[in-house]
Write a structure and sequence with these properties.
Helix content: 40-55%
Number of strands: 5
Strand content: 5-15%
Largest sheet: 5 strands, mixed
Number of helices: 13
């Protein structure tokens, strides 16, 4: 169990930034993560699979997306992060807090410059600190997520409307209140760095916090940290992972499934011929190969094209990196996904680039 700290400059926020930076420094090629499952049609109706090609995207649009990836990093933000982690390594928490405030202000300003909207979570996080019951915390999260067009709840029971995702409800009488506060603050921090326009593009209308997800009907492994049901527009998050430092990664991953389905269509996202054509000749998802991480970003992404896209897009939503060192296949996939996002949310590619960091940053290591 992670200890919740109520101090102003919380360990949650600093550790979230630490994970973000460390992930980007390592590069997405080296990451192997276990994510929530995609939603696919049950076996009995598996024949309803469309073939998607986003023909509206011109070659020029894709080329512009790739050039965005190769632009220089933002030196101002780069310096702020370097100073942040030096201060953190030196346990200078007062300076850490001031730099975090500058980073938040920078991201809000950059989003506005590109016609996008970020929502400040701090007033809601302060109310979380003051809450004395699980229902109060849930209500505050729900109020904040409504800014993104979604409700948030801990359902009392599973019902047929959940269709492909079976789960056990959370016994709210056994919830560790400090741990739930920790997760609530962290989750709102994750959403606060995602433009409202991006979250709304996912099409999700509800987030449910549950336990013991059974994804058998989705032909996927169970006990995942999250799942995306594009057919009832619900994102499911595992309660036991809600105070995990990987929550931001899970959330962006599941949102990416929704965005993919919105752009490609409910059936088209299952078979995306344009995207799959970027794989090398002879490549098949689910088949081990020595050069797998030159074709997909993680081992989990090698499962199928849906997970391949969600892994890449989830990383993209945390900010674009200098991926010119990546394989031609990964660069082509990344550029296509970025072009699709830009076609639906003008300004998003420049914004994501503005908050991206260089993988080559040389800064003090994070103190444990």
């Amino acid at each position: 169990m992670i200890e919740y700290s109520p101090k102003r400059f919380t360990d949650v926020r600093r550790q979230d930034l630490a994970i973000k930076l460390n992930d980007e420094r390592r590069g997405i090629r080296s990451r192997v993560r276990r994510f929530g499952a995609p939603i696919i049609l049950a076996t009995s109706i598996a024949g309803f699979v469309g073939d998607f090609s986003y023909s509206d995207l011109s070659a020029q649009t894709k080329s512009e997306a790739e050039s965005t990836l190769l632009e220089p990093d933002n030196p101002k933000l780069q310096r702020m992060y370097e100073n942040l982690f030096r201060a953190d390594a030196n346990n200078n928490y007062e300076r850490v807090g001031k730099i975090i405030d500058r980073i938040d202000a920078f991201q809000i300003e950059s989003a506005a410059e590109h016609g996008l909207t970020l929502h400040d979570p701090e007033p809601y996080q302060e109310r979380i600190d003051q809450a004395s019951e699980v229902s109060e915390i849930t209500a505050v999260i729900d109020e904040y997520t409504k800014k993104f067009g979604m409700s948030f709840e801990i359902p009392e029971r599973w019902d047929a409307r959940d269709l492909l995702v079976e789960f056990n409800p959370v016994d709210q009488g056994t919830v560790d209140l400090p741990a739930y506060k920790f997760g609530a603050r962290y989750f709102m921090g994750v959403l606060s760095r995602l433009p409202e326009e991006v979250v709304r593009l996912s099409g999700f209308k509800k987030i449910q916090l549950v336990r013991d997800m059974d994804l058998t009907l989705m032909q996927s492994d169970s006990n995942k940290a999250g799942a995306a049901n594009i057919y009832n527009n619900v994102m499911y998050l595992d309660f036991d992972g809600f105070n995990s430092y990987s929550l931001g990664v899970y959330t962006r991953h599941e949102l990416s499934h929704g965005i993919d389905a919105t752009i490609c269509g409910d059936s088209g996202h299952l078979r995306d011929s344009e995207y799959e054509s970027l794989n090398p000749e002879g490549f098949s998802y689910g088949v081990p190969r020595e050069d797998l991480l030159t074709v997909v970003s993680t081992e989990y992404a090698g499962k199928n094209s849906r997970e391949d896209k969600a892994e890449l897009m989830g990383d993209m939503l945390a900010g674009l990196n200098d991926y010119e060192t990546f394989s031609p296949v990964l660069r082509a996939k990344y550029s296509l996904l970025l072009a699709r996002l830009e076609a639906n949310i003008p300004g998003i590619s420049d914004y994501l680039r503005s908050i991206g960091l260089s993988n080559s940053m040389e800064i003090a290591e994070i103190s444990s």
